Amino acid sequence: MILGSVICAVLFLLFIRNEEKLTAERQQHVNELAKELQPVNGERKKWQDDDKAWKATLEKKTKGESCMLLGVDSMGRNLYDTVFTMMAQYGFKATFTLKDGQLPISPDVEEASREYIDTEQFREMLDAGWEYGISVSEREITGEDAGEDDWLTRLDEALGHLQEGRIGVPGVVFASASQYSADADAELIGRGFREVSILNKEKASVITGDEEDFIHINSCFLNQNNMDIEQTMDKAAANRQSMAVTINEVLRVSKDGDEDVSLTKFTSFFNKLKGMEEQGLFQIMTYSEYYDYRKQLEQNKIKLLADYKAFKQEMQQKMAELDQQEQEIVKRTIPEGFH
């Protein structure tokens, strides 16, 4: 009985020692395997890191940065005397409209009789990087008049005035939400326009949707009664979205809160915009600059996606080779009995 117990104890001790030896040998093989696999794992991680970097680049360069488009739907004296002069202090430029095809007046017109900017001021603004678009005034439609057709007819009349003044067709037409209809796109393209800026006077909004050859831009109105533009700016910048803001008239004290904006609110808006520009949250652009930016972005996207596809094919091939190398190293390093 005692002998049997001793024999069992000896066998158990031998078993424990053998297991300890096997464990030590396994650990040795594991350590050797880890060492042998370091170059393979290092190269695999490099490819995975490169893939993450590619995805980050695609996200940034195909979506683009937040842009702010500034427009002035007027060519009255206030455009030059107040808006242009003040925006120059911020280093901003904008797109103004030759409303109803109104041409700049002669600089010889008496000061007291001037309603619009003159030709010298017009040239000065263009030389400063400003651009012009066109719009037609809204009017109350009564009876059976077709609002869309009437707008296009009056737009043609306005373009005719520009032609008479030897001023070329601009790239952008400004329209109110009630004037514009998607059915008019073909007509607008046929007249030489590349963009339509659709003004919403009720609330601030961002530019949405994929951009194509003819770009639709949702513009909000900087007037005295619109209280949510600055909050919308913060959200747009956070989500890397773009905005367009249209100004009509800037007055020392607002007279019609639906149509004009006070000097105080105008200054507050541009102080905030300047701060966001300096932080890299917005790029300030004219409409033609935005059009060129979007087209370049689309070209970059096509090239980047093609380059990324080639990278992924190379990565998949390389990862398969690394998997094969790993299997061979395991077979070579770990004896058959230790698998």
UniProtKB/TrEMBL annotation:
Parts forming coiled coils: 294-332
Keyword set, alphabetical order: Coiled coil
Record's protein name: Polysaccharide deacetylase
Organism in which the protein naturally occurs: Blautia pseudococcoides
